[in-house]
Amino acid sequence: MNRNDDDLLKKIFENLPKEESLPSGFRISTMERVRLEHIRMQKRNARLQLLVQIASALVIGGLAAAALVYLRVSLPKFTLLTSFTSSSASPFLMLGAIASVLILLDYLFRQAYSHRKYQT
């Protein structure tokens, strides 16, 4: 929570009628519930974000496979018994490495953005 929220809560609690006394620890328990709800929402958003990333990766992979089938691109056939040469596998390894690096960078940037967003 930032400073403005704390000031707003202080004003609300100060404006409560004095004749109605609140149970001891009411503010502490209320703030604890707010904090736990905030943590629960952060975890939910992180799970939802992961689900969206997985779904988008599957859609992109499906579209790439559909494009290869539509364009009738012949791919080298690999079996467990035959070894593949580095020249036939290098484009696929390079694409896999680029995709992995981009997904890692996306994850790191999202983490940095969310930490910066919640600290201000």
Question: How would you characterize this protein structure?
Answer:
The chain is an all-alpha fold. It contains 3 helices and no strands.
Shape: rod-shaped
Number of helices: 3
Rg over alpha carbons: 26 Å
Estimated helix fraction: over 70%
Low-pLDDT stretches: none
The counted number of beta strands is 0
Q: Report the structural category.
A: mainly alpha
Give the rounded overall mean pLDDT.
78
Q: Give the end-to-end Cα distance, rounded to a whole number of Å.
A: 9 Å
**Beta strand %:** under 5%
Give the biggest sheet: none
Along the chain, the helix and strand elements come as HHH
In short:
This protein is mainly alpha-helical. The protein contains 3 helices and no strands.
How does the SSE layout of this entry go?
Blueprint: H1 3-14, H2 26-70, H3 86-119
What descriptors fit this protein?
120 residues, mainly alpha, 3 helices
